[in-house]
Amino acid sequence: MTKIELGEKYQTIIKFYMKTFFLSIFLCFSGILNSFSQANTGITIHGQLVDSLSLEAIPFATAKIFSEQQKTTPLKVCATDENGYFKFESIHSGIYFLHFEFLGKNPMSVPVTIDDNKDLDLGKIRISDNARMLQEVVVSAQKSLVKVDMDKITYNMEEDPESKNNNVLEMLRKVPMVTVDGEENVQLKGSTNFKFYMNGKPSNLLSNNPKDVLRSIPANTIKNIEIITDPGAKYDAEGVTGIINIVTQNQSSLGGYTVSVNAGASSIGRYYSGAYFSLKHGKIGVTGDLNYFRMQNTKSEISTFRESFFIDNNHYLSQKGLNNLDGKFLMGYGEFSYEIDTLNLFTVNVSNRKQDLESNNNLAVLMENVRKETTYKYDQVGFTKEDEPGTTLAADYQRSFSVKDRLLTASYELYISTRDMDADTKIKGLLNFNDNWRKQFNNEASSEHTFQIDYTTPIAQIHIMETGAKFIKRINKSNSGMSVYSSPGEWTDIRSEGDKFEHIQDILAAYVGYSVKYKKWGFKVALQYTIPMGVLLSLNSGYSPPDITLQGEGMSYSFYGLSASKGLLNNTLNIRISANNLLRKNLEMHSKQRSSDFYYESFNYRPFRDFSLSISYRFGEMKSQIKKTTRGIRNDDQMQSGDMTGGSIPQVP
Predict the structure, then answer these.
(1) Which residues of 62-75 are buried (b: 16+ CB within 10 A; e: fewer)?
(2) Each residue of 53-78: pLDDT tens digit?
């Protein structure tokens, strides 16, 4: 037996045992879930919260349900919807208390007795105004899970018990206005036209591979997630639907450290590992993380068909192919902060990313005339390699004042990135098509210097004035080329005017903003189930509607996933398994377009069923808060869209 055959044999054995391992784990937890479901098939309690006088609906009020035995910790928590409706599911026979809270209203409790298996409709529940008007109120209570401000929605990650076991990508499924589809693509308000920030700044770690980075970050290192629904002038976000700002932990007043390590694997060839640390000593604070992600042998099949109505000779075009992708991603971030005194703060941070992608594809092309007779056909084999590193270095100085919310920030940021791509394509003519072999390359380099100053000051008690200025020096260069195999051992360069490119851009901008805050209000939402043994079960599902265009529509599909997590050693060690889309091994992505000239249809098949296992461990203790600058550089004037891979059909020689 040769070494190659022996290696393939070992790979087959390893894959078999991995599949058996994941299947065993899943069946075990499926049994737990099945028992849990059978034991918890209860009824639904629902109703509507309205004003006691006007009978108008009370939206986004906090609703809690308590059992008679446990009156301090709610069984479930939800928020009334925009029409004041609430619903609690899977409630069993017994005596309960419903508790409602809303700003400006008197908190109220409603006793409920359940003694049958029918859904209980409580109808309209009236809540009265709080007639006492106070100058200042101090409330000591549990923080809201979701807080709504004038220009943003904040999801408090620290108050969600699932954050101890999940990664950030999983937690985004619970954030209002954010959806994560079956392929783990993130959308904000149903659109991909948004920006990712980290600690108030654009993140190059997230800009290119958001789902890979988010999947590798433990949620317990995140303080909250802010959804900025109405970006103003300070975000330079013209045309952007919104911003998802991920705020990392500040930790709690003398010093200390904390370290988290995590690792995970998936049945469809995804592996990741990472580490996060935070250290505080006196006036100095240091935080950082390092993550590695591997995507191995990710296969997808593609099939396309095009009919050109007014061309008889080249009337029907059919393509069938297979693509195999292998990728490596290394991402790191570090931040150093120094508190000069109580009013002055200096921070420096650096982030680095590096991704290596290799793609192999095979494509069979068939062209037929209007009578279904073959015009030409050929096979195409391609190999593409991409190398894309990038580094960001930033420094911020923040000056606070004795006046609350008055802030001055001066910032500098340097961003450097390169992208090298090499492609090798061979065409084997099978009928009426010549052999062809070509090589292409593209080298890109960009650098960006940004200087920015921001000033915010309150006016009276409810007015806020913001102003700032920014200068950007941006340089982009690229060099590309193509060579064609002309004769044995000889290559011919194909040159064009666009092979070399250089663009230098100077941007000077300023903004002035004004806002009024009259009231603050918030609501709390949560959905989790805890079964015996302290195992936390989570179920997520969704539907992705088709993209509608003038010429046709894209695909639509539904997705779902089940995960179970368990915290050990006082929640310092967390183990999590998940299973997604159990009934569908592959996802068929079907799209079609039609115009007066042509009809086009494509099918893309990719792995959909997925089993994964992840482990994280945290040690150390933080006793001090690491301060972070409130404002920073945010460059959003350049809109970026998702990469689309494709190709053109070579002309008949």
Answers:
(1) bbbbbeeeeeeebe
(2) 888 888 777 788 888 887 777 777 66
